[in-house]
Amino acid sequence: MAIFVGLSILVLLVLLAQNKVKPAILFFGLLLVYYILDLIETKSMLNNFTNKSLVTLLLLLLVSIVFEKLYLYLQYQIKFFQSLTINLC
Fold first, then answer.
1. Structural domain boundaries enclosing 78
2. Same domain for 78 and 39
3. Is the confidence at residue 55, as pLDDT, over 70?
4. Beta carbons within 8 Å of 16's beta carbon, 6+ residues apart
5. For residue range 1-20, what is the model confidence (pLDDT) as tens digits?
6. Total domains present in the chain
7. In which region does residue 19 sit, left (phi positive, over 0), alpha (psi from -120 to 50) or beta (all else)?
8. Do 57 and 51 touch, CB atoms closer than 8 A?
């Protein structure tokens, strides 16, 4: 059992390094395999999906994406208004 888990994690790491499949699909697929083979209980699986640190990480990721998009939007606006004032003069 431990050998299977070790090999599956090794395969997961290799597939993550190749970057051909989305990580979410890989993690969900491995979780599904563990669930089908009864290596993980439903209760612990659902508890780990709602981990507070994971929710915090996702919220920080969303905030950083918003700030990145806002910065790019503001840079675009600055360039647009600069070109507009140049054309008016």
1. 51-89
2. no
3. no
4. 23, 26
5. 889 999 999 999 999 899 88
6. 2
7. left
8. no
